[in-house]
Amino acid sequence: MTFSEAYASIGPDVEAIAELLGIPAAEADKQINAEMNRAHAEKARKDARREYQRAWAEKRRASMRDSRLAVSA
Predict the structure, then answer these.
(1) What are the residue boundaries of the structural domains of the chain, listed by start?
(2) Whole-angstrom Cα distance, residue 71 to residue 48?
(3) For the whole model, what pTM was predicted?
């Protein structure tokens, strides 16, 4: 079993992963921290993109609204 499989099935339990994989607890802890940091960075990247898309959409809607008002005036 790989670390990724163990982490997916057990979660961030250092002792359980270390025992299952036969590695020292410190090594399991390092790998868990790396995986959690990776997941956090991915979430932050997605959140930043979502916020950018929301801001762009709002700006675009405002621009379209202004264009419609200018045409109807």
Answers:
(1) 3-72
(2) 35
(3) 0.67
